[in-house]
From TrEMBL:
Any one Gene Ontology molecular-function term assigned to this protein's record: protein-cysteine S-palmitoyltransferase activity
Signal peptide coordinates: 1-23
Presence of the UniProt keyword Transmembrane in the record: yes
GO biological processes: protein targeting to membrane
Protein's name in the database: Protein S-acyltransferase
One GO term describing the cellular component: endoplasmic reticulum
Transmembrane region(s): 137-159, 165-192
Keywords: Membrane, Signal, Transmembrane, Transmembrane helix
Organism in which the protein naturally occurs: Polarella glacialis
Amino acid sequence: EAIRWFCLAVIYAQALLSMYCIACIQRCDPGAIERTAETCLPQPAEMAAWLATPVADRGMLPEKNIIDGSKSFCVRCWLWRDPVGKESTAAMAGVDRFHHCSKCQRCVEHYHHHCTYFGRCKTGTGWRNGNLRYFRILIGLSFIHPSTGLSVLTAGLLQSESWPYWTGVFLVGSVACYIVGALLLSLVACYMRPDAMAALLRKALSKETSGNDAPVSMSAIWYGKVSSQ
């Protein structure tokens, strides 16, 4: 009886943790930069000249953002993205810390990817800020949940008379589920990082990889560590 309640507690605890992470992903600030007097002013000379031009003669907005030292002006959001006064990291310093999401149509800080399933940008650095940390926990739970279910089922089957047969069936099924899950996760990683995957394929097809190059893992594609250049 004690084992039964323990198994139920573990299952419900993991379910509550998953629900909490989903709620945090939806409600946590993704690092979007709001339009304020401080972020929109002063306007760059190029943009001020564009506004001063008659509407019939304006043409399209400039395609490239305006870079001014460590800050940049997004011509689509019409605001300055300035890292001054904010926590800096070696991996994402200066203008590289900001990205204009083409799905959300807004600028965010410490951009990782836009999740189509949650409809939100995933942003953050490590486990300190943003909603990316909760997304990573969900990814980890996607592997822990099947393990928990398998353990509970195995514990129940051991009390059955035909436990050898059913235990073997569940073990084989669990291995198959893990393999399919890994393949699906790889496909999701390729979908979210198409630029990195394209770079990896070009590198493999061109056979330019030397013997000193380290192999590129799927985790490198997932976290965007493969250059698209």
